[in-house]
Amino acid sequence: MEISLFMSKIDRVWLWRFFAALSLFLHSPICYSDKAPNYSFMRDATGSPTTSYYDYIIIGGGTAGCPLAATLSQNSSVLLLERGGAPYNNPNITRLSAFGAALSDLSEASPSQRFISEDGVINARARVLGGGSALNAGFYTRAGTKYVRNMGWDGGLANESYSWVEAKVAFQPPMGRWQTAVRDGLLEVGIVPNNGFTYDHINGTKFGGTIFDHNGDRHTAADLLEYADPNGITVLLHATVHRILFRTRGTTKPIANGVVYRDRTGQAHRAYLKEGSSNEIIVSAGTLGSPQLLMLSGVGPSAQLQAQNITVVMDQPHVGQGMYDNPMNAVFIPSPVPVEVSLIEVVGITGEGTYVEAAGGENFGGGGSSGSGSSARDYYAMFSPKATLLESNSMKLSSAQPFQGGFILEKVMGPLSTGHLELRTRNPNDNPVVTFNYFQHPDDLKRCVRGIQTIERVVQSKAFARFKYADMPFEYLLNLTASTPVNLRPPRSGPGASLPPSAEEFCQHTVTTIWHYHGGCVVGRVVDGDYKVIGIDRLRVIDMSTVGYCPGTNPQATVMMLGRYMGVKIMRERLINK
User: Fold this and answer.
1) Distance CA 513, CA 137 (A)
2) CA 560 to CA 160: how far, in whole Å?
3) Contact call for residues 44 and 264 (beta carbons, < 8 A)
4) DSSP assignment letter at 268
5) Active site residues
6) Which residues of the chain have pLDDT under 50?
7) What is the pTM of this model?
């Protein structure tokens, strides 16, 4: 009895010291000598071994995959497979002044892969290390505390994970006159209080963070690989995973044990998990890529898999279901005075189901690294990158004139409308068929209308007066914007087509994406609360495909946080199971 009690005390002391040391290890921002872009562990997949073995294989070096890989490398061997190249030394990615150029690049080497949903909305998916953080408008803002609770995340660890991310990639924007006028206009029309500069998601008006530093250089999720242990990680570029391998004989359920990937020459390679029950394959291929890869690997709706002659490993009807994209509508506002170049900096969190943001400036976007500048038509590519798909001379400003003005946009929160994804072919390089069903739910359309009405009040506010022509009523601005085709949806027709559109018509006919699409492997349907694929061992999905409701105004901060957060949780599990 005394010996047992003595041992119990020793156990308690040992466990306390163990978890204290573990907490310090996991939560300290350890930095190694490797700095972006000169990672010693990053190389092209061409020439990589035909067969290799790792503790963790992560598919997709995107917004979630990079922080996840960096974290897991600290006590395990990690292979990170990215189908694209590196984001460094490409000014069309790295420079704020070139924003939009990468999204308009339709070449096979582009860091962006164009897709068009069945709704007729032009969209893009990342094909580059760093994922969407290498292409987006850079706005950095956390999810709300209620969202964190609803997702079942530990608030303390979530905050620590956000801070870990922010130490590398988040900055305070310059907050010029245009953005300040939009902020003051939002406050004037009642989007209060003024929350100043903050990363936090709070009702009212605020300046959020940005991943562009004060020199206008972008910092992506790939920069989080500076946290990685160079001895514990291998990053392979231009490595496209074609399928996940499973062991099914003699098991009660499939066990993921490897992947087949091809390099840029088409050479096939295989990577397997080392022996050990804690070793896993983690899919972080994005909202389109993750459900697509599960289906290509035999996990998905059986009828759809059989139609593509794919052997069914597990019939999972929810894979590819629950696809969401937040509708975005922007109003173009010509300005009588110059407007500074800015992407998203200010946001009005209205509490009415919509977020209002702004961007503006001249001589950037469409010109890319050539420095040729941007017209209003080119600039619209920021929100709906159409490149050569659409040509329009209906904008009332000459494309030869420099752009002067900006956009105020609204994004519908949620959304409530839902769609689905299906395989088009068995080639992972081909886009799947995607339908989002914008405004299918009537509340989404009502929210959009309220957002447009808020924009109207901001444009007509005293605070914004110097940035609009006094003789341009809001109806004219709606008609001006609606006259430029920004999507492939049917144009307005009928007797009233020449009249200014109603707010409802404007929402329906000018809807574009803000690239916050999500779903397809939603928690509770395809993965459990620990992001493990339900019914399969040693396989997780960790990215935006697991989300059924978009976090906050812009999701990238939360996706990077989730990569770090889950990396810490998985490390804890591994240490406990040893």
Assistant:
1) 13
2) 12
3) yes
4) E
5) 516
6) 1-28, 31-33, 363-379, 382-402
7) 0.91
